[in-house]
Write a structure and sequence with these properties.
Structural class: alpha+beta
Number of domains: 1
Oligomer: single chain
Order of helices and strands: EEHHHEEEHEHEE
CATH class: Alpha Beta
Radius of gyration: 16 Å
Helix content: 25-40%
Strand order of the largest sheet: 1-2-3-4-5-6-8-7
Length: 182
C-alpha cells in the first residue's frame, strides 16, 4: 500500500527512501535501540538486503511504512501500520525512534497521534493495536497519552535474552466505531 507524506508540527512522516537503509544498519545493531524490539538482536545486514526490504514494504498491500524525518531533513526513526485488514478495518502500529538524541522529546507522541488520525480519517480504520514489551515504560506512557487503552497482557509472550517476558497489548478504537454497551 502506498504510504503518503504526513506532516506534523515538527516532523515529516514520509515513505521509505533507499538512503534510510544505511541508518537502519546502525539502528539494527545498537543494543539500546533494539532493547524492546520483538526480534532477537540483529546481525549487520548486507545493504542489498535492506534495499530488498524497502521494495517488499512498498509492495505490501496490507501495510504502510514510513520514515520519520525532522523538519531539517534528518531521519530519526520509522513507523508503520501493518496487517491492515480492510474488511474488519483494523491494523497494527509499530514505531522505532532510532536516533537516541530524540528519545524522550515527544517524537513518538506526535508521530503516533498523526498516524492514528491518518488511519481513522483517510484509511477509515476502526481500531489500531500495538504491543509494548514489559519494561518499556516510556512507550506505555506514550500509548496511554495518545488514547490507547491497555486491553491485555500477553504473559510470557516473548523470549528476550533467554528469559520469557510479558507483552502489553494496547488498542485504540475510533469513537464512531465503538460498540454500545447494553
Amino acid at each position: 500500500m502506498k504510504a503518503p507524506n504526513i506532516e506534523t508540527n515538527s516532523y515529516l512522516i514520509r515513505p521509505f527512501k533507499t538512503s534510510d537503509a544505511e541508518l537502519w544498519q546502525k539502528w539494527d545493531i545498537d543494543p539500546e535501540v533494539q532493547a524492546f524490539m520483538p526480534e532477537p538482536f540483529n546481525e549487520v545486514q548486507d545493504i542489498e538486503e535492506q534495499y530488498k526490504y524497502i521494495e517488499e514494504c512498498e509492495a505490501d498491500e496490507e501495510g504502510c511504512y514510513w520514515s520519520i524525518e525532522t523538519k531539517n531533513g534528518t531521519t530519526i526513526g520509522t513507523v508503520a501500520l501493518t496487517e491492515i485488514n480492510e474488511y474488519h478495518k483494523i491494523a497494527n502500529l509499530g514505531i522505532v525512534i532510532g536516533d537516541k538524541n530524540h528519545w524522550g522529546k515527544g517524537v513518538a507522541t506526535e508521530v503516533i497521534t498523526a498516524i492514528v488520525a491518518h488511519a481513522f480519517e483517510q484509511l477509515h480504520l476502526c481500531r489500531i493495536s500495538a504491543e509494548v514489551e514489559e519494561g518499556n515504560v516510556g512507550m506505555i506512557k506514550v500509548f496511554k497519552k495518545v488514547g490507547f487503552k491497555q486491553d491485555g497482557l500477553l504473559e510470557s509472550a516473548r523470549l528476550k535474552n533467554t528469559k520469557r517476558i510479558n507483552v502489553h497489548h494496547f488498542g485504540f478504537v475510533k469513537p464512531s466505531c465503538k460498540v454500545k454497551s447494553k
